[in-house]
Structure formats: structure tokens, C-alpha cells
Design brief:
Number of helices: 6
Strand content: 5-15%
Largest sheet: 3 strands, antiparallel
Strand order of the largest sheet: 1-2-3
Helix content: 40-55%
Structural class: mainly alpha
């Protein structure tokens, strides 16, 4: 099963939409927040095509990157974007038999911030993020030893 945007949205709703019956609750600390985000991206990418043997490793790197964020840090946006880039690089290295080029750096999430800052629902934020993240991951490219080139899907 390839990348499925609706799965990503569902995973994001779990961590963003307090009004959803599947909401898992607000994280009690930074480590839990990083774990929640990393798990959401893992679930979404675990069936990527071409298949990757490094999805769990990519999750770990993503989570570690998010641990560098803190409320006093002025560069949280950069750290968040970098976590996605690091995840994609590690994911691509596990696509055995394929030479992979991850999506372009950085992922552009700026259009989502006004949605949240304007008080829109967690569901609306999750939908907007799912569209952007899904579109971004699909710009990764892999070429197999036979010369077949495909976008990640």
C-alpha cells in the first residue's frame, strides 16, 4: 500500500484535533509531542513505494530533531522543517535497489500557520498539513538498477 493522504490526515487529527473522538490528548511534555509527530509520519510512510527498510530509523531521527525545539527557541519553524528533511533522507537510504533523491528542502508549511493562528479547528489544520506533507513526500524520486525512475508514492 503506497502513501495515502487520508491516513496521514487521520494520524494528524489524533494529535491536533481536540474535538475529534480519536484525539489522543495533549502531550504532557516535549518528548511525548515529538513521539506523537514521529509516529504520525511513520504510520503514513511505512508502506511507501519504493519500500524502505529504514522507516523506524527515520522516525527516530525525526523525533530527535524535534527534541531540539523549545518554547524559547526562535527557530522552531526551521527545526520542524529540518525534521521532515532528515526523515526523508533516511527513508530514501533504505530503498534497497533504488538510488533515491529525497524531496526538495525545505518543506513549505507556511500556508498552514495562519489556519491555526486564526483559531480554525484542529481538523482544518490536519487537512492542510496532510495535503502539503503528502504532496512534498511525493516529489521524492527513485531510480532502480534497470533505469526505471518513479516518484515516491
Amino acid at each position: 500500500m503506497p502513501l495515502i493522504q487520508s491516513i496521514l490526515k487521520q494520524e494528524l487529527v489524533k494529535i491536533l484535533d481536540k474535538d475529534s473522538p480519536i484525539f489522543i490528548g495533549f502531550p504532557s511534555n516535549q518528548q511525548q509531542s515529538a513521539e506523537n509527530w514521529a509516529q504520525a509520519i511513520l504510520v503514513y510512510t511505512q508502506s511507501i513505494v519504493p519500500a524502505s527498510t529504514t522507516v523506524e530509523q527515520a522516525k527516530s531521527v525525526f523525533k530527535s530533531a524535534l527534541m531540539a525545539m523549545n518554547p524559547d527557541s526562535p527557530n522552531g519553524n526551521m527545526i520542524f522543517k529540518s525534521a521532515f528533511s532528515q526523515f526523508a533522507v533516511i527513508l530514501g537510504t533504505g530503498m534497497v535497489g533504488w538510488a533515491s533523491v529525497p524531496p526538495p528542502v525545505p518543506i513549505v508549511l507556511d500556508s498552514v500557520f495562519p489556519i491555526g493562528l486564526n483559531g480554525n479547528s484542529g481538523s482544518e489544520c490536519a487537512q492542510a498539513l496532510a495535503v502539503i506533507i503528502d504532496s512534498w513526500f511525493r516529489t521524492g524520486i527513485s531510480t532502480n538498477t534497470g533505469g526505471l525512475t518513479i516518484n515516491w508514492n
